[in-house]
């Protein structure tokens, strides 16, 4: 009986505290106390929730926030523990507390409205209020829910040499589009100053773990999203360091559009672009990962060594264009250059006075005006898995390459042929019922354990499974390799999101780069800059398609000793001989 006695006690105390703090609310609170009693045995509340959840929820939120702001700190200090800890405390006290909130809003809600939200609806409202007070990015998402599916969805990967400013530009874009509020950034700035790294604070919006912040280097592919008037963008912030290129390939394989960030600062552009620099490698990998359009952001234009100089901008451009052309981008159609400064935000959203010679659109408006991508939603379902983890079931992440997925749909996980069911669908952390191609999804699956999934597995529909196998013929371009490559050579194959060891078992013929003619005799080896058709065999069974049938799952890169050696496309799958 003790807790029951204490409940009204603390009621009284709280009432007194509020009376002393806020004279105006006095009458409201005494009235409250009278009304609160009949509702204590809150048995029927649950039945009312479905009716009011939708309407009352939003009213509740606004008014609760308003009430919290009216009452001073002390009141919220008393209220907060109750909202959070209502599971551990005795049932009666929180119910009274819950009653107190709706009745304060009685003019708007009416008595029937009180009873509904006083059940779980207010419980839902309370955590959301807490969230709003802690970090403001949270409320940015709900308003966009209704039109999220209508806007075209585009995945943008930021690539480039280490320290070119990819994460900083990503952070700045999120700030300019209102996905990160000023207060959070000020907090990052303070923390960065303490570590005497004050120019890094913007990148902390995307580099979230401690190691990345301490060293100032992205390791994993950071994810964030922002919206413009016409489109919904997912930012994939790829690591620039050469040790983490495999992570970058995983990020690029999910992207529709790549932003190559280069630093205009004297010395930095040159190191990024020389033989060992990541500017070249990343541009090439982006092309093989299936990125069609490339925007080259010439960053750090505000640097004292550059000072928005047109000569330096043109110099960077002249060096890059021939290389990008060689990789396979068409300079007239596929590439767009623009100057910017990630740290100051110049020319990202608004044009800048510093740079009168640049007449094009700034970065975000330019993204908004890009032509529509044509994607077919009626194709077979193909979702290569990027990552997986346990969270109330098995959750997988990946980009839907083709087809559409809806809730409760039965799919097959290849190559293990597990039948799974989709329990819930999240597109950029917003729950939806169905998803179309190009969206970055989180799926909660039923019927499979997290340990049974590996990155590189593919979700398909049962009517149209993807091909699996170990042996295939492919056309390969050797990009960088000091010695010759003979049959028996081992490398690491990166195909869509899958990473697997592979051996070149036979070199079938050489292909002439200019004419495309195939050699009549079998070559004994291939060397740098040659194109050949070879037979490859992987260590384990992988999912793959021919390039002709399904380009996203038919292009691959071969890497060895931390360098990208070759890029290629799958021509033919070879059936296994038993």
TrEMBL record:
Which GO CC terms are listed, alphabetically? cytosol
Q: Name one GO molecular function term.
A: GTP binding
Q: Which GO terms describe its biological process?
A: nuclear-transcribed mRNA catabolic process, nonsense-mediated decay
What the entry lists under SUPFAM superfamilies is as follows: EF-Tu/eEF-1alpha/eIF2-gamma C-terminal domain, P-loop containing nucleoside triphosphate hydrolases, Translation proteins
Show the catalytic activity: GTP + H2O = GDP + phosphate + H(+)
Keywords attached to this Swiss-Prot or TrEMBL record, sorted alphabetically, are: GTP-binding, Hydrolase, Nonsense-mediated mRNA decay, Nucleotide-binding, Protein biosynthesis
Boundaries of every Tr-type G domain copy: 151-377
Q: Which family does it belong to?
A: Belongs to the TRAFAC class translation factor GTPase superfamily. Classic translation factor GTPase family. EF-Tu/EF-1A subfamily.
Could you identify this protein by its name? G1 to S phase transition 1, like
Recorded source organism is Sander lucioperca (Pike-perch)
Gene name, Swiss-Prot/TrEMBL: gspt1l
């Amino acid at each position: 009986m003790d807790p029951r006695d204490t409940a009204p006690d603390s009621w009284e105390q709280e009432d007194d505290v509020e009376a002393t703090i806020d004279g105006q609310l006095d009458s409201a609170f005494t009235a409250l106390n009278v009304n609160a009693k009949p509702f204590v045995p809150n048995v029927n509340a649950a039945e009312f929730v479905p009716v009011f959840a939708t309407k009352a929820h939003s009213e509740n939120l606004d008014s609760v926030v308003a009430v919290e702001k009216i009452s001073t700190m002390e009141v919220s200090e008393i209220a907060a523990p109750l909202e959070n800890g209502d599971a551990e405390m005795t049932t009666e006290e929180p119910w009274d507390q819950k009653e107190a909130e709706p009745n304060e809003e009685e003019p708007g809600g009416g008595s029937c409205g009180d009873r509904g939200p006083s059940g779980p609806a207010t419980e839902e409202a309370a955590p959301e209020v807490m969230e709003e007070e802690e970090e403001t990015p949270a409320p940015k998402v709900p308003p966009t829910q209704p039109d999220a599916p209508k806007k075209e969805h585009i995945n943008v990967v930021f690539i480039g040499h280490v320290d070119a400013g990819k994460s900083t530009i990503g952070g700045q874009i999120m700030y300019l589009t209102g996905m990160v509020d000023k207060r959070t950034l000020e907090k990052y700035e303070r923390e960065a100053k303490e570590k005497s790294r004050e120019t890094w604070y913007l990148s902390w919006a995307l580099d979230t773990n401690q190691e990345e912040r301490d060293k100032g280097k992205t390791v994993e592919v950071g994810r964030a999203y922002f919206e413009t008037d016409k489109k919904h963008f997912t930012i994939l912030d790829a690591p620039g360091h050469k040790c983490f290129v495999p992570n970058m390939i995983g990020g690029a394989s999910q992207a529709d559009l790549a932003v190559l960030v280069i630093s205009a600062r004297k010395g930095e552009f040159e190191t990024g672009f020389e033989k060992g620099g990541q500017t070249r490698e990343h541009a090439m990998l982006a092309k093989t990962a299936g990125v069609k359009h490339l925007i080259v952001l010439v960053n750090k234009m505000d640097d004292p060594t550059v000072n928005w100089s047109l000569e330096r901008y043109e110099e960077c451009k002249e060096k890059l264009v021939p290389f990008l052309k060689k990789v396979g981008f068409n300079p007239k159609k596929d590439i767009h250059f623009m100057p910017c400064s990630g740290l100051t935000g110049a020319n990202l959203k608004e044009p800048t006075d510093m740079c009168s010679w640049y007449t094009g659109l700034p970065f975000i408006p330019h993204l908004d005006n890009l032509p529509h991508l044509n994607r077919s939603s009626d194709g077979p379902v193909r979702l290569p898995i990027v990552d997986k983890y346990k969270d109330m079931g098995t959750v997988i992440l990946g980009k839907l390459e083709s087809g559409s997925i809806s809730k409760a749909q039965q799919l097959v996980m290849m190559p293990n042929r597990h039948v799974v069911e989709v329990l819930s669908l999240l597109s950029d952390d917003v729950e939806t019922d169905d998803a179309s191609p190009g969206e970055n999804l989180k799926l909660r699956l039923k019927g499979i354990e997290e340990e049974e999934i590996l990155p590189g597995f593919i979700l398909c529909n049962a009517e149209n499974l993807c091909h699996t196998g170990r042996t295939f013929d492919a056309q390969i371009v050797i990009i960088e390799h000091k010695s010759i490559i003979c049959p028996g050579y081992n490398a690491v194959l990166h195909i869509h999101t899958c990473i697997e060891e592979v051996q070149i078992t036979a070199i079938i013929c050489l292909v002439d780069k200019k004419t495309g003619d195939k050699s009549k005799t079998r070559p004994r080896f291939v060397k740098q800059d040659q194109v050949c058709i070879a037979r490859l065999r992987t260590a384990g069974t992988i999912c793959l398609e021919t390039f002709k049938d399904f380009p996203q799952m038919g292009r691959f890169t071969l890497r060895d000793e931390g360098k990208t050696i070759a890029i290629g496309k799958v021509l033919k799958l070879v059936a296994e001989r038993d």
